[in-house]
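Q: What would this chain look like folded?
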Amino acid sequence: MTKSTNIQWHDSKVTKAERQQMKGHKSAVLWFTGLSGSGKSTISAELEKQLHNMGIHTYRLDGDNVRHGLNNNLGFSAKDRTENIRRVGEVSKLMVDAGVVTLSAFISPYSKDRYNVRQMLEAGEFVEVYVKCSLEAAEERDPKGLYKKARAGEIKGFTGIDDPYEEPVNPEVTVKTDKETVEESVAVIVEYLKVEGYIL
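A: My prediction, written as structure tokens:
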């Protein structure tokens, strides 16, 4: 990729702190990571609804949705996955600067990619939410029929089958969607946000 030249960063006259003050809450990225079918989209969508009802300004970035537009030129090779996550990290950073609680739901199988997104943000602005689910449970759900295709050899490089998923070592939050209801998992996350002072 060719890098841009002759560019300069232009600061706004409104700061992130001022935007947060106006909204009445902190901004951060809640980064949902987990296997395909683990429940990332379901949990993040339900959480967004609850936070919205609480008066929290949110926006949800979902893996499939982003690949319809911003990242529609990327495939699923290791290189493309890394670029996919890099771009989403940059968008998430802009959202945080805008004072928004951003819910980013991506398999993001490689720990280095997740670490790199964390490094883009200030301390406390990246909340890793590990949507933990056994491969067996995720495969049994198989809402998109992807595991079936991967097992049949129709999809190559599928996370959990013939491509690795590197589990988070020290996520801020872990929800166990093969043992908890959606409501229980969302409650765990909301409680964390309250205890840590992200929301009141």
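The mean pLDDT is 94.
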